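Budget justification note: compute hours in this period were largely spent on complex prediction jobs such as the one shown. Inputs:
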Amino acid sequence: GDSVTQMEGPVTLSEEAFLTINCTYTATGYPSLFWYVQYPGEGLQLLLKATKADDKGSNKGFEATYRKETTSFHLEKGSVQVSDSAVYFCALSGAGNNRKLIWGLGTSLAVNP
Amino acid sequence: KAGVTQTPRYLIKTRGQQVTLSCSPISGHRSVSWYQQTPGQGLQFLFEYFSETQRNKGNFPGRFSGRQFSNSRSEMNVSTLELGDSALYLCASSQDRGDGYTFGSGTRLTVV
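Corresponding output:
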């Protein structure tokens, strides 16, 4: 079945460092890909998405490109801030009526000032 | 516009009891999904409702059930609670165009 694998955390960075969180997937067909972020004590917020190959999703300085050839959707940010400290989840959604989200296990990011 | 509203935010129940959680989706969203989040298992899909019909179901026992009303509001019910049901239950709504889901803040259920 469909699955998502993302790098284990926790990831600890200093402010203004470069961030990469790896995400790879296994899916039949052409899924949509998402990054969600969860701040402490809160629900999940959609960070960015891509619905077809070579699409680049971007939001709040974060970017991820849908790479069909490597089945990857890595999250990047050029300069992280303390406020980016959160748990980041990679997810995919199938096509048609099977839109349930399949999740990675999440990567915890801590940014130190 | 208002986001996805889940009530209550916190619940403490005793083993063997039952519980009902509520979710009000964003206005105009007809798809509502439920997820369970635990430290050990991560995020797991429970079920999805669209226009009052269950469209997808995850691999949870029959003690977990749900429904959707004509105004798209949804409820999930867990009967005969077990300690392992302690989790954050998240509801998400969508316009069903593949453009992602908007999540509520969740209901934190603790079973003692």
